[in-house]
C-alpha cells in the first residue's frame, strides 16, 4: 500500500515506464508535450535534487507553487513531494522557495517572499526565458544542471505535503476525488485544466487511481471528441 505521494509516483512509473503518463495540450499556443512515466520521473528527480542538493531543503520546509496546471507544474509539485518539502499553492506570504510563472512573477500582489525564486515561461519544448523577471532564476536552466536520478528522501505519511495536509490526508482526498470523478485503474483521462485547476483533481486523483492523464489548458471544446479518439481517452473530465 502506498502511503506517500512519492510511493504513488514510483508505482505509476514501475507499471509502464515507457507509455505516456502525462500528455499536455495548450490550445492557445498549440503546444503538445507527451511525457512517459520515465521522462516525468526524470524531471521530478531533477527538481527534487535542486531542492535538496541545490537549496538544502527538506522536511519542515515549504515551497510555494503559483503556477497553472501544466506538465512543468506536475514535475515541480511531484519533485517537492519527493524531497519531503511541503507544497503550498495558495500564494502564502512567505516560503523557503518559490516557483512562479514569468508572466505574473513581478506582480507584487501575488509574489511570495522567498530566498530562492524560480520563474518559468511554461514554453513549448521547455524553452528557457528570453528575459528573466528581476530577482528570479530560470527554472528550466537551473533544474537541468541536476541529475535525473533522485535517491529519495525520508518521507512519512504524517509529513506535510500540500497546503497543510499530510501525505496520508492528501492521498485520501485524491482517492475521494478519483471516486467522485469515476477515474478507473488503467484509464486514460482527459482533464480540462480550466475547470479543474486543483492539483488534487488534475494530477493526484488520476495518479492514485492508476490512470494516465491528458491535461488540456485553454481547451477548445470543439476538439474534445477528436482528441479523445486520437489519445485513446476513456474518460473526459470537463
TrEMBL record:
Record InterPro entries: ANL_N_sf, Rv3268
NCBIfam families reported in the protein's UniProt record: TIGR03089 family protein
UniProt protein name: TIGR03089 family protein
Organism whose genome encodes this protein: Paractinoplanes pyxinae
